[in-house]
Amino acid sequence: MQKDRIFAKPMQSVGDFVFDERVVEVFPDMIARSVPGYSSVLAMTVELAEQFALPNTNVYDLGCSLGAATLPIAHRIPHDAVVYAVDSSPAMIAALKEKIANSPAGCRIEVVQQDISQIEIHNASFVVMNFTMQFISPNARDALVCKIAEGMLPGGVFVLSEKINFDDESQQNLMTLLHHAFKKAHGYSDLEIAQKRSALEKTLLPETLREHTRRLENAGFSTISPWFQCFNFASFIAAKASD
């Protein structure tokens, strides 16, 4: 696993963050050192997939990146289920295909390079979107969650994990301070933190817990449970009612 040093040197101009080849090379290190509780969210995602994915149904990993959820899920769910691993980044998709080719398969994995807001969801018993909605245009988020809900079977489960923000300014400032402290404790310098924050300013657009809950409710999920939060990162379990 290569160490993330993308923002280690001063830049005259910090462009928008993109999931290109440079990011792909260091992505496992980058996300582990940037997202508090990431390993816990990932491990529980796999446990939930094993619990709720049904035989002869589809499972979707939307914004799959390098398959950190896709690959272990494929080994823990029924072998006649199909996992659709979807990402818009050509570099991520190419690297994921290589990983799948070099590892024994569990159930079938279909790798799809596509904007997740355009993907069709059908016959789904389990859908996961880990730290991906925040990169989708806010204007497209309601429609995307409605599409996910409509394509899920009764009793199906949607796991949504996101960076969040807060209405209260003092709470927002505290959580930002603690998040930066987490990154410094994991080896990032002040320069790296500042430059990456600048790169993400226009591309990563977080929302509040209340906004996420409203959207899930409006889409028709009957049970919505925030199950994890560490500083300004949270995860929800949203379930459709059983018939």
Descriptive account of the structure:
37% of the residues are buried. Helix 5 (138-150) packs across helix 8. The protein contains 8 helices and 7 strands; from the N terminus they run ααβαβαββαβαααββ. It has a domain at 38-165 and 203-239: Rossmann fold, CATH 3.40.50.150. The termini are far apart. The protein is α/β, with parallel strands linked by helices. The radius of gyration is 18 Å and the shape is globular. A 7-stranded mixed β-sheet has the order 3-2-1-4-5-7-6, sandwiched between helices. The mean pLDDT is 96.
Radius of gyration: 18 Å
Total DSSP E strands: 7
Q: What is the first-to-last residue Cα distance?
A: 45 Å
**Helix proportion:** 40-55%
Q: Mean pLDDT score, rounded?
A: 96
Kindly identify the CATH topology of the domain at 38-165 and 203-239: Rossmann fold
CATH superfamily label of the domain at 38-165 and 203-239 = Vaccinia Virus protein VP39
Top-tier CATH class of the domain at 38-165 and 203-239:
Alpha Beta
Order of helical and strand elements:
HHEHEHEEHEHHHEE
Unreliable spans are none
Strand order, largest beta sheet? 3-2-1-4-5-7-6
Strand content: 15-25%
